[in-house]
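Ops channel
N.P.: pipeline sanity check, posting one input/output pair.
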């Protein structure tokens, strides 16, 4: 057992035994080779079914990194370009002055359409055509390309419809055929999960919390404001454990999130960095382009400073903020990132939904980055 694997094994065991985590997966690749594959705890507390390396976890916005990767593979193959106007693929999207928005703007959360109708429900999110029509008809909150603001749910439909219009295939099929299949993880990396696979998934559980935010506080936060009947965070469709356990949500294409094993998404990031068992998703030149800082400044939706590349966050958390790290984290505490400096790709998936608490990822990430530095 290598030292990194040993240290991660000890940390996972400690986190599960202490009750800080229920079920946990950690996977690390370095220079295209798997160096850590550790699991612990239970995938379903009701039955005691254990977590295995191939257990998929619904992982909210960690899936946005997968969504972006699909686009980069298509650009690499000449199917579309970053500066392609969205209206060339999706004419309806040009309504209300959005005709100058490009694929690049969509990737960097700059189209000005961060919201969905304020009354959106989980059932609505499962209606692909309905959601795309609502987003196409939305009035932009700013002129596309002039600002950046996190697109929590609309990102998935924007990118997914760009993919569908340019390929004629739903994004779940493109993911399977162009990314997951070639990497040998088609059974562990999904947008819409086949119904026959639902029994393999981890069951999510909300972490206990004594904190309760007053309703009036929500109204004062940029993330929850309503503009022209649209909001970035519809209250009826918040991605808590109940949302992530719904069969209709899990089987639908809602590519602002994704369902994945840690080893599958770590393998995907490793194949962005370089070759994995003969598969490389993008060229070295494309890798440099997609990991360069594309936008930085104050986020119009979260109200916090951000640095983004083409479809990924730069820097992971406050404790792991290296400018060579790119990837995405999810609101439940899962995260997947790659480091162009060390050749490391790391993913952590978990089923105790922690509402933006990334302490587990930070702890595992520090172990991995320390052990992997300079190798």
């Amino acid at each position: 057992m290598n030292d990194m694997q040993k240290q991660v094994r000890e940390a996972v065991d400690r986190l599960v035994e202490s009750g800080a985590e229920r079920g946990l997966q950690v996977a690390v690749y370095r220079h295209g080779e798997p160096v850590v594959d550790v699991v612990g705890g239970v995938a379903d507390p009701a039955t005691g079914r254990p977590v295995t390396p191939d257990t998929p976890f619904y992982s909210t916005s960690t899936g946005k990194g997968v969504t972006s990767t699909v686009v980069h593979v298509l650009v690499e193959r000449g199917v579309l370009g970053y500066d392609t106007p969205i209206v060339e693929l999706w004419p309806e999207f040009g309504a209300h002055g959005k005709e100058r928005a490009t694929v690049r703007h969509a990737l960097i959360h700059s189209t000005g359409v961060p919201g969905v109708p304020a009354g959106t429900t989980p059932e609505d999110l499962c209606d692909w055509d309905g959601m795309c029509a609502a987003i196409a008809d939305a009035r932009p909150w700013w002129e596309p390309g002039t600002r950046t603001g996190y697109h929590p749910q609309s990102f998935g439909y924007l990118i997914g419809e760009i993919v569908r219009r340019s390929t004629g295939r739903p994004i779940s099929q493109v993911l399977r055929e162009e990314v997951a299949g070639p990497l040998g993880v088609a059974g562990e990396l999904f947008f819409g999960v086949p119904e026959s696979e639902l029994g393999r998934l981890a069951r999510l559980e909300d972490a206990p919390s004594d904190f309760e935010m007053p309703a009036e506080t929500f109204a004062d936060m940029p993330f929850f404001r309503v503009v022209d009947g649209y909001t970035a965070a519809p209250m009826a469709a918040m991605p808590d454990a109940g949302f992530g356990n719904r069969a209709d949500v899990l089987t639908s294409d809602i590519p602002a999130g994704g369902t994945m094993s840690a080893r599958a998404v770590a393998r995907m990031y490793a194949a962005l960095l370089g070759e994995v068992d003969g598969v490389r998703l993008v060229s070295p030149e494309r890798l440099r382009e997609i990991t360069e800082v594309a936008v930085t400044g104050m986020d119009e939706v979260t109200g916090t400073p951000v640095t983004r590349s083409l479809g990924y966050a730069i820097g992971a958390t406050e404790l792991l903020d290296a400018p060579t790290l790119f990837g995405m984290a999810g609101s439940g505490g899962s995260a997947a990132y790659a480091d162009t400096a060390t050749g490391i790709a790391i993913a952590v998936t978990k089923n105790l939904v922690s509402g933006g608490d990334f302490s587990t990822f930070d702890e595992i990430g520090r172990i991995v980055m320390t052990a992997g530095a300079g190798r």
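N.P.: looks fine end to end. DSSP finds 14 helices and 17 strands in the chain.
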